[in-house]
Specification:
This protein is an alpha+beta fold and 173 residues long. The protein is built from 6 helices and 3 strands.
């Protein structure tokens, strides 16, 4: 891996469990980076910038320590496979929650998607449900998809809604 934005802390082992922060705090030319990594709410962009700056200026030993924590290509691939699985499950659950609410049911708790749905429905009332799971395609445009919920508003306009969950960026272990 290479590039102006490489490495990134998301692809470092020992971030989530604090081991890399602890190791950095023990090495004089890595203490500033260790303090950034030890923050309870890690700003990924800032931490990645600090990591790259530190790599450019630290000793060979410190550079080797940091480099030893960078994920291998196989580990990164595994990380993304895990994220894909988590996103798929979250999306399926979010979809089910939205359909439940739109069909008059109630759910416990809330999430960003449900807040957006409540806001949307509150602003577009009244709606007359038209279709769910409406598969569409346009051969000439080479476009296909599925509209999760379609309704007609009080002016007779078609209102379409797609349920997609928001995946918060997380730091791998």
């Amino acid at each position: 891996m290479s590039g102006a934005r490489w490495p990134r802390v998301e692809y470092m082992n020992g971030i989530k469990n604090g081991k890399l922060a602890h190791a950095c705090l023990q090495v004089p030319d890595l203490t500033a980076l260790g303090a950034v990594l030890a923050q309870p709410s890690l700003n990924l962009a800032h931490a990645s910038h600090c990591l790259r700056s530190t790599l450019d200026s630290c000793s060979a030993e410190s550079h080797a320590l940091l480099a030893s924590h960078i994920m291998s290509p196989a580990e990164i691939k595994e990380h993304w496979a895990l994220k894909a699985e988590m996103a798929s499950h979250a999306g399926t659950w979010t979809h089910l929650q939205c359909e439940c609410v739109l069909n008059g049911g109630a759910i416990k708790g809330t999430c960003a998607e449900m807040d957006l749905l409540r806001t949307f429905v509150g602003r577009t009332r009244p709606l007359l449900a038209f279709r769910t799971e409406w598969c569409i395609w346009a051969s000439d445009e080479r476009l296909a998809g599925c509209i999760d919920f379609a309704a007609i508003d009080e002016k007779g306009h078609l209102v379409c809604l797609g349920f997609n969950e928001i995946v918060m960026q997380s730091v791998p272990q």
